[in-house]
Design goal:
The structure holds 3 protein chains of 3 kinds. Chain A is built from 15 helices and 19 strands. Helix content of chain A is 34%, strand content 23%. Chain B is built from 18 helices and 8 strands. Chain B has helices at residues 4-7, 28-33, 40-51, 59-66, 73-77, 87-101, 106-118, 151-156, 158-173, 190-194, 198-215, 225-234, 247-254, 285-293, 318-321, 331-341, 352-364, 376-383; strands spanning 146-149, 178-180, 219-222, 243-246, 267-271, 297-299, 346-349, 372-375. Chain C is α/β, with parallel strands linked by helices. Chain C is built from 15 helices and 8 strands. In chain C, β7 (303-306), α14 (309-321) and β8 (325-328) form a beta-alpha-beta unit. Classes of the chains: A alpha+beta, B alpha/beta, C alpha/beta. Chains in contact: A-B, A-C. Chain A binds chain B through residues 15-16, 18, 20-23, 25-27, 31, 42, 44, 70-72, 88, 90-91, 112-115, 117-119, 121-122, 135-138, 321, 324-325, 327-328, 331-335, 387-389, and chain B through 5, 8-15, 17-18, 21-24, 33-37, 42, 45-46, 49, 54-56, 58, 60-61, 64, 79-81, 83, 303, 327.
Chain lengths: 459, 387, 345
């Protein structure tokens, strides 16, 4: 161990490697319900070369490596299930390039969402990236690699779909570039080459360490507004979503359901965010977005809330800090959610399942959905808060999450950034040949099985 | 521990690490060490683990607790209402518990010992406290309107003494009636409080309160925002009822009445908000009012200013314990680079601790040819019209 | 219980049918107005049930004080002709429900009722409000807003308790029977709507205008004329109490501002549009807002004065974007006293 420590210190400097109990404690767990797993080392590289050397060392010694971004995934994906090195990537947080004309940014994998947001605001105010509702310290890279979504996902899909290319260190130490940057000095797209970026998307760090990535940027328009459409009947929600996504003018569409505050209980709120270059354009967009929902307004089964400015502000905030605050609704400091990707027609079923599970498990809840693309699917989330200091409450939330994962799969959805046990549930239902293909890909890329072992594993 | 029941409520979401616009890391210790353990959330979780016996007392744990500069960035930016107000209180209470075990870092132990034995962290005789006044002809306090309190850094520190002299001169220019205690002045104890030495702090504070009351002190003007904070917020809990102002607040009230040179070489100044004046006491305007009144001075704000100011790293006793160190990622050096990045020639400060930290940082960054650290009072003095 | 004091015979005999003919938002000639009126009296379907924007103005237009608007709202509710989508109505009913968190409090005259606008407590400062006791909260919310939602049932259910709360928790042991109403709606509720529904009010409501006028008289030596040209946004709730209008001119005179002559003022005032937006008539609301702002600008106003906080919140931003300063009446008075005021936009 001491030898490994010395070698790691030789790579990153003693200051950025630790095997002390304090770091082991903090890096063994995240904010969710998964049991802690101690790392042997926590290491913070500062460059691709350092990552490469760490990977070579790990390969030589057969030490597991677990890459970690913001550490905010909540489902325990950066816990070192089989020990080894947790690679905290946040020292690699440089914003390397912004191509204003072709609208993309190249960042190091540990660059935070907030930092990129602030950088663009200052240096390229006409551009923005799709901000997830994770806290701003979450990394751009981590969110792309887990197929995250955010404030431009209605307009442009999953964050992984906004990826133009990447640099990655393979488990055997080679540094590869994927996407246009493999061939061109520009990082403009993944097409037209064979799309190898998929080898790293959704794999939760089991295929290598991504060190740089290019993401698409979008116009940052100065006038922004939100409409909140309220209905009671979940059965009409798929049609409402279908209609409003069909307009194609919104940037973000998301639904939320919560028993607190009292006035929100029993209602489904659908936020439609849009932006414009002028006040007039904003007005036109508003009217166009409202038009297909006229049927429900006339039937009096749904309508837009009248929101004074102070009430609108939280809905225009990106990331939405009020979502983070959900962690403390029970003064317990914890929450975890199942985010299940599913078609929008499953909204009523998913909504009911959330209510049923919360009641059955005796926990409170917050559910909702972010629409991906033009209604092509949604990330339906079932969030359960818990009191971190009360083991029985943590267990209760854990049970609710487990049941939710199973329920989401039963109805045809797929849990997103699934916890290790949920990954097993997914693999059990997966097409046999696909499952085998995943294993083959992994064996081919990572012959020594050092990359985040315990994840995406078939027993 | 009174705040034990809030420790688990930290979600470790990380808003506390950032300024309002998320542009960069703004927690001095996290910025410097980069392990999650050195962030406010890491500290909260570790403190709970330590109190529950999940981790043992260790030098690393002690360093983690004492690496916090108590700058209040976490309190300012935490998104959990009410809970946020207790973050620093919980940390300081944690330090108090560590003090009880005797396992504080050596530098912290030395600090406590110096105060205990010498009454100051410089290990210098009390008799030397008045040396900063040499040649100034200042009156001893005797029922003047204000007691000018300069504190340990102003009394003994080479850089602090300059600031103290400039402040005294400024008060004279403003025709403020004030007196000093000179060698009779004692440490205010603010750092002791923030470092968890509650008992010694209370002893010192009570002694000071008794002394000031006996002398008939009604109003105190301080050189340091740390002293200001202690007198304003901590001493009243022990029976004090003095009216307390920081010298910049007093100056801001009368700055327009001061005669300045008519024409002056234009200079660009950036201002570094001291944590104990800004975030802890919400005073952001006084210094800017002063700068706004100085002829030829153009204020260029740093990206992180006001409630978003990056701490110099000197709070919580770090001016003396130096747990954050002087490396290139130390907050003082990052701050010096940020200040230089504005193109300013002068980095104005309003705290003798910040003066020292940033002065050293400017030198470490080899920026001294382009950037000069000046106390507000020193800067005002350069613009005064000849009498 | 709480039967509406409405006399069918008065309406049947009315030749002017001003309630409908004068309506700014529905175009009805006298004959068709008479027809629709009869339908309403008989409880039959009427276009008025659907087209009414619930601006209260017909309460002012009725020369007989016969409460045509309250009847209309009863009829809307009976026929389930909901002006606002049902989920929004239900949500509002929940949002504004009494929380039952009221407890007896020692208040001293003068007592100022801030209705359910806790966010406006910042306005209650300075010389105008020295010594004033403020009461506020869901448990004293006047509930008149349900007129906009075809929910007279909510008024009948909640208002008696509200009246009782104000009396029992604040006034009974305080030695005063007077309550200053910050909001026109409260004053209208207690002086006009409550009697119409047969709800007893044991205290004496005082309009904010009266209080401000008297205070300004008292402090006249300290008033610095503001010398501004102001447009006044008369709220729908003032339609219930038009007799209070003269105070607006008196206050303006006392603070030294000129009320501009414009089309959409006084009896011809336009709705702020807030309720229209809840009714999902967004385009109509935008249209009315534009007309209103154009009118203010054309008249040369530089300030828009509100007394209704709801109008202020609904229109304030648009007013500011048009280059006029939005300000509440109480803040205008504070400004005339040289004090900083609350403001928002």
């Amino acid at each position: 161990m001491n030898e490994t420590y010395s070698e790691l210190a030789g790579i990153v400097g003693e200051r950025y490697v630790s095997n002390e109990p304090e770091e082991k404690f903090i890096y063994s767990r995240d904010q969710g319900t998964m049991e802690p797993c101690d790392p042997d080392f926590v290491v913070m590289p500062d460059s691709t070369e350092e990552v490469r050397q760490i990977v070579l060392l790990a390969n030589r010694k057969g030490i597991p490596i677990v890459p970690m971004g913001g550490g905010l995934v909540l489902s325990g994906l950066s816990r070192p299930l089989k020990g080894g090195v947790v690679l905290d990537m946040k020292r690699m947080n440089r914003i390397l390039q912004v191509n204003e004309t072709s609208r993309y940014a190249i960042v190091e994998a540990g660059a935070s969402q907030g930092m990129l947001q602030a950088y663009l605001k200052k240096h390229h105010p006409s551009l923005k990236h799709s901000v997830p509702d994770a806290p701003p310290i979450a990394t751009v890279g981590g969110n792309v690699l887990i197929h995250g979504s955010g404030h431009l996902s209605h307009a442009a899909g999953f964050h992984s779909e906004m990826l133009n290319g990447m640099e990655a260190v393979l488990p055997t130490g080679e540094v590869v570039r994927l996407g246009s940057c493999a061939t061109s000095p520009y990082w403009f797209s993944r097409a037209p080459l064979p799309d190898l970026a998929g080898l790293f998307l959704g794999w939760t760090g089991t295929t290598g360490v991504v060190t740089k990535l290019a993401i698409r940027l979008y116009p940052n328009r100065p006038f922004n507004d939100v409409g909140v459409f309220v209905v009671e009947d979940p059965e009409i929600v798929p049609d409402i979503l279908h209609r409003v996504t069909g307009v194609g003018l919104a940037e973000d569409i998301s639904a939320w359901m919560t028993p607190k505050p009292d006035w929100a209980e029993g209602f489904i709120h659908i936020n439609v965010n849009y932006s414009a270059d002028s006040k007039d354009e904003l007005g036109w967009k508003k009217n166009l977005i409202r038009a297909p929902l006229r049927k429900y307004m006339d039937e009096k089964t749904g309508g837009f809330m009248m929101l004074p400015l102070p009430m609108k502000k939280p809905f225009l905030e990106a990331p939405a800090s009020q979502l983070t605050r959900f962690a403390d609704v029970r003064k317990g400091g914890g929450f975890e959610y199942v985010g299940a990707i599913m078609p929008i027609e499953l909204f009523p079923e998913a909504h009911q399942m959330g209510l049923d599970i919360a009641e059955r498990c005796g926990t409170t809840y917050s559910t909702g959905a972010r629409i991906i693309g033009m209604g092509h699917c949604m990330m339906f989330f079932f969030a359960y808060p818990f009191n971190r200091a009360d083991p029985s409450d943590v267990k209760r939330a854990g049970t609710a999450l487990e049941q939710t994962n199973r329920g989401a799969l039963d109805m045809g959805g797929i849990p997103w950034k699934a916890e290790a046990p949920a990954q097993k549930q997914i693999l059990q239902r997966m097409d046999e040949n696909t499952r085998e293909l995943m294993s083959r890909v992994r064996r081919m890329l990572d012959p020594k099985g050092i990359m985040n072992p315990g994840n995406w594993e078939v027993d | 521990m009174e705040h034990f029941d809030i420790l688990h409520r930290c979600f470790r979401c990380g808003y506390c690490k950032l300024p309002s616009n998320y542009s960069d890391l703004n927690c001095p210790s996290y910025l410097n060490f980069r392990f999650e353990t050195y962030s406010p959330g890491g500290r909260m979780w570790l403190l709970r683990a330590w109190l529950e016996g999940e981790i043992k007392t260790s030098p690393r744990f002690a360093e983690i607790l004492y690496s916090c500069a108590t700058c209040g960035n976490c309190v300012e930016h935490c998104v959990f209402p009410k809970f946020k107000d207790d973050i620093l209180k919980a940390l300081i209470e944690g330090r108090e518990r560590l003090v009880e075990t005797g396992a504080v870092p050596p530098a912290v132990r030395d600090y406590f010992k110096s105060i205990h034995l010498y009454g100051n962290p410089y290990k210098l005789p009390e008799a030397d406290r008045a040396k900063w006044t040499d040649g100034l002809d200042l009156e001893s306090y005797s029922e003047q309107e204000y007691l000018l309190y300069v504190g340990c850094v102003g009394s003994y520190g080479e850089r602090g003494q300059k600031s103290a002299r400039a402040v005294a001169a400024l008060l004279k220019t403003m025709k403020i009636s004030f007196g000093i205690l000179g060698s009779e002045e004692r440490c205010d104890g603010n750092e002791l409080k923030s470092m968890g030495e509650k008992g010694l702090f209370e002893l010192i504070a009570e002694e000071n309160i008794r002394k000031y009351k006996k002398l008939g002190v009604k109003k105190i003007v301080t050189l340091s925002p740390h002293s200001y904070h202690a007198f304003k917020n901590e001493y009243p809990l022990l029976g004090a009822d003095f009216e307390v102002v920081h010298y910049s607040q007093l100056a801001a009230r009368t700055i327009r009445k001061i005669g300045f040179k008519r024409s002056e070489v234009p200079v660009t100044v950036t201002f570094h908000d001291p944590c104990y004046l800004g975030r802890h006491n919400k005073e952001y305007e006084a210094a800017r009012k002063i700068l706004g009144a100085l002829p030829g001075v153009q204020l260029k704000e740093m990206d992180r200013s006001g409630k978003d100011a990056l701490c110099c790293g000197g709070g919580g006793g770090n001016v003396f314990t130096d747990i954050l160190g002087a490396g290139p990622h130390s907050p003082a050096r990052v701050r010096a680079r940020e200040a230089a990045g504005t193109g300013a020639q002068i980095l104005a400060v309003a705290c003798p601790g910040c003066s020292r930290m940033l002065d050293d940082a400017v030198k470490a960054e080899s920026l001294q040819d382009n950037l000069q650290v000046m106390d507000l009072a020193e800067l005002v003095a350069t613009r005064l019209a000849p009498e | 219980m709480y039967e509406l004091k409405y006399d069918e015979a008065v309406c049947e005999k009315c030749e002017t049918v001003d309630c409908l003919v004068k309506c700014r938002y529905m175009t009805l000639d006298r004959e068709s107005a008479k027809e629709e009126r009869l339908r309403l009296i008989r409880g039959e379907d009427s276009r008025v049930l659907k087209d009414c924007i619930t601006c209260y103005a017909c309460e002012e237009y009725c020369p007989h004080g016969n409460h045509p608007f309250y009847l209309l709202v009863d009829r809307q509710e009976q026929s389930e002709t909901w002006p606002v989508p049902v989920p929004l109505t239900k949500q509002q009913i929940k949002m504004m429900a009494p929380k039952g968190r009221i407890s007896p409090e020692n208040v001293q005259a003068p007592v100022l009722n801030m209705c359910y606008f806790p966010m406006l407590k910042g306005c209650i400062q300075g010389r105008l409000f020295e010594g004033v006791s403020t009461i506020v909260g869901s448990d004293i919310f006047c509930n008149i807003m349900w007129l906009h939602f075809a929910k007279n049932s909510a008024i009948r259910e909640r208002l008696p308790q509200v009246v009782n709360n104000i009396w029992q928790y604040y006034l009974r042991d305080s030695g005063t029977q007077e309550v200053i109403c910050y909001h026109d709606e409260c004053y209208g509720t207690y002086t006009q709507l409550a009697p119409a529904f047969g709800i007893d009010v044991p205290f004496k409501p005082i309009h904010l205008f009266q209080f401000l006028t008297e205070k300004l008289a008292e402090l006249k030596d300290q008033v610095r004329p503001l010398g501004m040209r102001v447009a006044y946004q008369r709220p729908c709730s003032n339609r219930l109490v038009p007799e209070t209008q003269h105070w607006v001119d008196e206050i303006f005179e006392r603070v030294g501002v000129q009320r501009v002559d414009r089309e959409y003022d006084r009896e011809n005032a336009l709705c702020c549009g807030g309720i229209l937006r809840l009714q999902q008539r967004e385009e109509l609301a935008d249209d009315i807002l534009k007309k209103n702002l154009d009118d203010m600008s054309a008249a040369g106003a530089t300030v828009c004065v509100f007394n209704c906080p709801a109008c202020f919140f609904t229109m304030g931003q648009a007013v500011a974007e048009r280059g006029l300063m939005p300000i509440l009446m109480s803040d205008l008075c504070r400004a005339a006293l040289g004090e900083k005021w609350w403001g928002v936009f």
